[in-house]
Amino acid sequence: MTDQKTTLDTRERILDVAERLFMENGYEGTSMRVITGAAEVNLAAVNYHFGSKEALLREVFRRRLAWLNHQRLEALDRLEEHAAGAPLKPSQILEAFFGTLLRMGEDPALGGMTFLRLLGRTLTEPAEFIRTFFAGEYAQVIDRYKLALFRALPDVPKAEIVWRLHFMLGAMSYAIAGTDVLQVVTGCEVGDLAGEGADADPSDTLLARRLAQRLMPFLLGGLRAPLPQFHELPVTTTDTRARAVPQDGLRP
Amino acid sequence: MTDQKTTLDTRERILDVAERLFMENGYEGTSMRVITGAAEVNLAAVNYHFGSKEALLREVFRRRLAWLNHQRLEALDRLEEHAAGAPLKPSQILEAFFGTLLRMGEDPALGGMTFLRLLGRTLTEPAEFIRTFFAGEYAQVIDRYKLALFRALPDVPKAEIVWRLHFMLGAMSYAIAGTDVLQVVTGCEVGDLAGEGADADPSDTLLARRLAQRLMPFLLGGLRAPLPQFHELPVTTTDTRARAVPQDGLRP
DNA sequence: GTACCATTAAAACGAACGTTTGAACGAACC
DNA sequence: GGTTCGTTCAAACGTTCGTTTTAATGGTAC
Q1: Any idea what the CATH number is for the domain that residue A186 is in?
Q2: A181, A220, A229: residue with CB nearest B124
Q3: Is residue A59 exposed (0-12), middle (13-18) or buried (19+ Cβ within 10 Å)?
Q4: In this complex, which residue's CA is closest to the C1' atom of nucleotide C20?
Q5: Quick one: DSSP state of residue B86?
Q6: Which candidate, B16, B110, B29, B32, places its Cα nearest to that of B69?
Q7: Most CB contacts within 10 A, which of A63, A165, A191, B128?
């Protein structure tokens, strides 16, 4: 027959199925039996190939994040090399960080929107081993990008930049994960929002691209917003009085 | 003795404990035995008072969300009455929606930051009954606020407003939930970010207030960002060619 | 053929899960 | 005092969980 089950087939079929099921039902909500059943492999296959359920989840992410974060570092390298020592523009940095991720959503071979949604949801999963795993995977990348933002916005307090990086990650994660979560809150199908005919499958490729185009301006607007005022805050130390942030092109 | 265990005591002790544990370990990650154990009540107490674990989670949210969403609607009522027919300012709307929520974080009697964190995390939980529950709880409020934003920003396409409402909810949820989630990604304690001495308990009250002051400008900046360009959007299908990381040219 | 190896298969493991049961308690009312 | 009713209790229910075990399979090298 056409589909011989070699080792690689089994491993990757498990990974693909687990990626989708973890996205749909969460880590704790997805049992090994459901995974192996959907992948049409034996129940013991997961423990044989990966060792444990935790290790399976880690591998699901590792095979995507390794590529993603490598691309992110490379993108930043190219930008900085091209800038020849000058600070980058915030828009460039955001494009390198978020754009690289969102472009994964356009390519099914890289996990497509399934992986993006899984990523967005899993970042808030409370399980300890998940958090420590992400910490390790992201440490390098976040650090490089943080420094780049510090240089790009020398007049903004570093703490403020980190907060806004926080906010931006959140906006992105929700926008991705919420494709079928928060639509329920806003009462709109994401297809409607995209102006699609809202067919059965709105072609993740297109979805990811539209999402990127709507998200990037929002993030930039937030990143460059005027600094908070801190009126009547009971004192502690820092005088973080508002200096205006370079807010070019802020249109009504 | 001082602590007599009346019915109300048991019910509320369960709710308080469940609120905290669901926040720390998630819904699926928190067992009835852990809940009842921490609340020092019998295992059967949850099923007796609430009927099921699902019903317990719903009640945990209902007792807070009922108050919150009522406040939100009242805040909007007050604003619109005061405006006497004129459209509200976006900043007023955001303040009424997000400010009301964030002010809950300052009051331990309303759940404090524990409830806020739980809310932020649970919005991404994939369980079906959770999503449908939130949909019902939020429908009214979201609808009123959406309309207010439509009126406040008549020149912005409605779809764009809904998207940005999406983004704002995400930024807020992450900022709240991430108090100990994404710090691990950004490598900073939230105490550090706030400029605190980072004592044992940074006094949720203060934390919530600082968070609000940093979040609101970000949200406003994002909401009023220039509209996306939609340049060269291919009409139909895939063409998944990854354009190389886009470069320098990107001029804001 | 035989020995070896990685992989798959079927069955069982103990533990933990949410829920239910039936009895015991204790204050309130007649 | 006896009855009632809301509540608490210990114990068990049947199920499902992740994992382990033991045997069978199929190809490759000798």
Answers
A1: 1.10.357.10
A2: A181
A3: middle
A4: B44
A5: S
A6: B110
A7: A165
